[in-house]
Amino acid sequence: MRIGELARRGGTTTRALRYYESLGLLTARRGANGQREYDEADLRLVTEIRSLTGIGFALEDTRPFVECLRDGHASGDSCPASVAVYRRKLAELDECIERLEAARSRVRTQLAEAEKRSRPCAR
Predict the structure, then answer these.
(1) 3-class secondary-structure state, position 82
(2) pLDDT for 30-63, tens place per residue?
(3) What CATH number has the domain spanning 3-117?
(4) Environment class of residue 68 by beta-carbon count within 10 Å: exposed (0-12), middle (13-18) or buried (19+)?
(5) What is the dihedral of CA 99, 105, 108, 113, to 10 degrees?
(6) Which of 16, 38, 52, 114 is disulfide-compatible with 12, CB 3.0–4.6 A?
């Protein structure tokens, strides 16, 4: 399939696919006419990349999943390097949640204090 069809089927743009290629996440074969050609395995890679970036992974974080698929595994997260990325991402999310919970607690406290001081405005 050509790049336009891959983009359509993968839910992305041709520009994104070229970018993935520049990063080495996707490898196009060239036809006799010089146009990029892809197959179903490439669609699987694009789907994996889009799925992971859709839940907040950086493009570089998708590399172990892509490599795992290229090595013939049925799932991009079947390899130890992919599991390590999951663990790192989960730790990042946990840290972010902790920061947000602390901020929420501070805002809740400040709101309670402000409500104690708050009086109706005289008109």
Answers:
(1) helix
(2) 988 989 999 999 999 999 999 999 999 999 999 9
(3) 1.10.1660.10
(4) buried
(5) -120
(6) 16
Q: Kindly report the backbone phi and psi dihedral angles of residue 46, in degrees, each rounded to the nearest multiple of 5, phi listed first.
A: -60, -40
Enumerate the domain spans of the chain: 3-117
Which pLDDT belongs to residue 118?
83
Listed as own residue / partner, the contacts of 34-40 with beta carbons closer than 8 Å and 24 or more positions apart are 35/2, 35/3, 36/2, 36/3, 37/1, 37/2, 38/1, 38/2, 38/3, 38/5, 38/6, 39/1
In terms of DSSP H, where are the helices of the chain?
A: 3-10, 14-22, 40-54, 63-70, 80-117
Q: Give the pLDDT of residue 7.
A: 97
Q: What is the pLDDT of residue 120?
A: 75
Please state, as a whole number, how many other Cβ atoms lie within 10 Å of the Cβ of residue 93.
12
Give pLDDT, residue 31.
Answer: 87
Query: Percent of the chain at pLDDT above 90?
Result: 89
